[in-house]
Design goal:
Blueprint (H helix, E strand, L loop, with lengths): L7 E2 L12 E2 L3 E4 L5 H11 L2 E4 L12 E3 L3 E5 L4 H13 L3 E5 L6 H4 E3 L4 E3 L5 H11 L3 E3 L8 H4 E3 L4 E4 L4 H11 L3 E4 L12 E3 L4 E4 L4 H10 L5
Parallel strand pairs: 1-15, 3-4, 6-7, 9-10, 12-13
Antiparallel strand pairs: 2-3, 5-6, 8-9, 11-12, 14-15
Length: 229
């Protein structure tokens, strides 16, 4: 019998785990300071290898990175040696890399994307959004979610499903389904937090959620991401 480790995790007590980690269907990135136990949980549940990387002295890898299985969008806060690590991993999987110079540089908060489509903060310049779209290999649609432009913190999407802010109306969910080309639902995470993009790390194979998440929230995540076991 294969033992699957529990889905609830935190990063040194912080349950907003997606600020620190980023994953696609091929690989994942984490801060340099990550425990062997947490690394093992993420690798087992998402069925990927995790590479540790710094962000100019920060642990916020997920906040400054957006990616799908075609490309990585990194912020200009990454140092050259850190970008070299990103490029090395990307090269192994034939994945594109773009270092964004836009003033709105928290890419994890500003972009939500899977391999089919994506959404982006409308404040990102058109020329920069086009470069990002080319690297990710999908159209990025400018929009807000529940009145917020930081769509990456409002929504998480994989190639199987998505979960978005709890106040998103049914017609908006339908629009997101057309963009991501998968089904999805709204929910909260971490005991009522509506910014689900901050508390879920997932790909097509599995997920982890912030340690404060309730059983009902976990059920919603599994349903939205089509990962019901």
């Amino acid at each position: 019998m294969i033992m699957i480790k529990p889905p609830k995790v935190d990063y040194f007590g912080n349950s907003s785990i997606s600020l620190f980690f980023k994953a696609n269907d091929l690989f994942a990135f984490s801060p340099l300071a990550v425990s062997d136990k947490l690394k093992s949980v993420i690798e087992e549940r998402l069925n990927i290898n995790l590479t540790q990387i710094g962000v100019d002295g920060s642990d916020l890898v997920g906040l400054y990175t957006a990616m799908n299985s075609h490309g990585i969008i990194a912020s200009n806060v990454f140092q050259e040696k850190e970008i070299a690590v990103l490029r090395s991993v990307a090269k192994d999987y034939d994945v594109n890399v773009h270092v964004s110079r836009d003033v709105n540089n928290a890419n994890g908060n500003n972009i939500c994307v899977n391999d089919n489509g994506g959404i982006i903060n409308p404040d990102i310049s058109h020329s920069e959004a086009r470069k990002m779209s080319d690297v990710l290999g999908v159209e990025l649609v400018p929009m807000d979610i529940a009145g917020y432009k930081t769509v990456g913190s409002m929504c998480i999407a994989t190639n199987k499903g998505f979960v978005c802010h709890n106040d998103v109306a049914p017609e908006k969910i339908k629009e997101l389904e057309r963009i991501f080309k998968v089904g999805g639902i709204n929910s909260t995470i971490n005991f009522g937090v509506p910014f689900v993009g901050t508390g879920i790390l997932a790909n097509s194979y599995g997920y982890v959620v912030g340690s404060e998440s309730t059983g009902v929230e976990i059920q919603r995540v599994e349903e939205g991401l089509d990962l019901v076991r």
